[in-house]
Fold this protein.
Amino acid sequence: MSFYALIPAAGSGSRMGGKVAKQYMPLNSIPMIAHALIVLAREPRISKLFVVLSPTDKRWGNYEWAGWEDRLQVLRCGGATRAETVLNGLQAMATECAADDWVLVHDAARPCLPAESLSRLLDEVADDPVGGLLAVPVADTLKRAAGTESGARAEATVPRAGLWQAQTPQMFRHGTLSEALRAAGADMTDEASAIEQLGLQPKLVESDSRNLKVTYPQDLVLAGLILEHLNE
Ligand SMILES: Nc1ccn([C@@H]2O[C@H](COP(=O)(O)OP(=O)(O)OP(=O)(O)O)[C@@H](O)[C@H]2O)c(=O)n1
Ligand SMILES: C[C@](O)(CO)[C@H](O)COP(=O)(O)O
């Protein structure tokens, strides 16, 4: 049984609003994607990293990846949605990855993955019958909005007991995840929801808010500050 990482990196970063796809935006002097790759590559239990790019990606080649040859393989099969990218990547990995091998799917847009959180996920899920994901119990009070002409207004408060915010990596066996994503369709926003649709219950492994997803411009500033102190 082996562990592989699949990094979906074929998005356009529309919510970031930049000219450059956010996974290539500079973050503490290197492209954002490199931070996640470095943490994943440093985990000795992970045999290989597969980065899934858009077939039209023209930026990857602008960077120096010498020395990564043994640890990383680029797959140019990204799709129109994140779920499609992941499924296309799984299919391309099938020549090397057995059905019971573990695949850790990690967003290129999460550059601040703490090494200890990655290690904890592997420790706690490697013998799990289903798989699991990093997540954080919801700490804020949650409001359900009602759209009005004057903008969003709080219609109700959603009880936060038992609610967690999903992060990545999300770790499932190659065969199960491929089956789940094929059955669930292209609009799944994470791997765990496809697994849940099979009637399975992924394990929630507690992470923390440092492992944020860089979505909006202000997240880039936060990520830079976190990275300055991460894994010190
Ligand atoms: N068709 C897609 C869409 C997203 N992703 C990847 O999935 C991760 C999380 O997605 P998100 O934060 O939504 O990135 P984008 O889709 O690029 O952002 P946006 O939704 O703002 O366009 C990112 O690493 C992104 O590159 C992908 O591989 N293929
Ligand atoms: C997978 C994920 O990061 C878990 O929170 C999230 O669902 C990705 O959503 P996005 O809209 O594709 O960024």
